[in-house]
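Task 17 of the worksheet. Students: predict the tertiary structure of the chain below and write it out as structure tokens. Keep your answer in the requested format; marks are given for formatting as well as content.
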Amino acid sequence: MLSVKRLLYVILLVIAVSSVFMIYNINEEKTKKNEIYNKFVEEEFLSKEVSIFKANEPRFLITGSKSKEIYKDIYINTCLIMSDLKLSYEEKNKIEAKDLNKGTVLIFCDDVVSKYIDLKTLGQFVIDGGKVIFAGGLIEGNEEAYLYPFLGIKEKTIKENYNKLSFVKELLPIQYEEMNYDGYNASIWLSIKSDAEIYVEDADKKVPILFSYTYEKGKSFVINGTFMADINCSGMLTGAIGAIMDDFIYPIVGGTSVFLDNFPMVTYINDKTCMKLYGRNTEAFVRDTVWPVFLGISLRQNIPYTSSVLIESSKDKSFPAINDSLFSTIGKSALQYQGELVYGSNCEDENRVFFNKDFLESFNEVFPRYHVNGLVMMSDKLSESIINIPGVKVKNIRGHLGARESGKRFNSSSSYSVLPAATFGNTLEEGNLLEITSVIASYGMISHVFDINTLIAEDENTPSWDKYKKQIGLFEEKVLNPASYLEGKTLSQMANKVKSYVNMKFGWRKEGNQIEINCSKFINGQTFFYKTNHEIESAEGLSFKKIDNGYYLLKLANEHAVIELKER
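Model answer:
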């Protein structure tokens, strides 16, 4: 048994050793924080100017209503997509026979066709080898029945809502046998001839939703419904073009960005609620349970996260007191594993902007070498008053793909770069899987937002983590795994891809089994999708990778590239 004197010696020794380790760990933590910094390297265009040939590319004529409810959105979205993909198109209020030639692709953005073209002229155009896309669906009943033989229709009646979609033929680079659409699509009930090609049908009633039909020398594709009023269904349009064209080459962004909004959590959900639901406070639950799941995905998929902290709002009471361990959490999670921390803006009123000044000052003290230059828009408001954050130079902004103003979608200027968020939510249900795969098809990008707040609790009585954890696993399995050819990038890192995508000019032509691509004002590695029924044998000036459903991924290395196709 130890004497009192020896016991005191032991106690003092333990205290002394513990103090040394404590001081060491604190200093080490401070050193780690101070050493964290970020550096962005802007890449330059390949400078050589080349002539861009467009002669062999299709010429698109777009017509439809700019004022009719829903259909005006289809019209606007169709033009936006065409512009984004650098496709040659012309808008027409009325189409005459003289406007049509063999290389023309007509796109109707209304369910009524006869307002824009004489139906006999349209029929003759198809007979002669013309191609037509009905992006706004079809009118109800037997109206415009003259078109039946050209579209392979036997009968059509009224519009209904078909949400449970079955993909029966290759259309998108990534697609699943069944995917849901979470919206009203106003599809016509119809029956079609047996020689029509059905790509998508209603899973229960087997009503054709996306189908094509060949008549004489021409071909038509029908998007049966108002899907194109939703920009996230843009893959249906690129899929339709790819289905009626022998070869279809178009530029894509070529990257994956995953955003974790409200992480680290300045706006904690109520600790009492988290303790009630999970037996731990919010900080501990996020640190020990939520973050490891996302970290595992990041390491397996080589995808760095862009995390955001709410820094400005139209409500002055949006910013609670900063938790003491917040910056330790930031240093150990958001700023590790090549991740990036950006600021979040949730301003519904651009004339009423409040800043989280306490966080801004404290962050700069703890991380003096880390310069935050990104801003994510949690609302759809974007203005100079929102961008001008005290002491912050915003260079990279997350906008919205559904925004109509070009500067809020894709933008690359001397002031800042804008990458749009395309999809939101913690689940692949409620139409998210269809929207994500559709955006991959049209834009070759994943730009998805998770909200850490709602991952934990939907309300004070409903724990949501167990449900969402499974959905996050499905996101990795059904989205990230098959789209591994898209490079994982943070918001700032995507600036180079946006710069190339926005500024590039390209053209291509095909002669026999050879395809030539010319491109200027692009950054090395600019990516394209190539949809074809052929197989590539070899290529110069670019690398290629065969993915699924008739698509190739092309990465351009020179201003001039040549593809050799295999003999058939």
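Marker's comment: The chain has three domains: 59-244, 255-485, 499-565. Confidence is low (pLDDT under 50) at residues 20-34.
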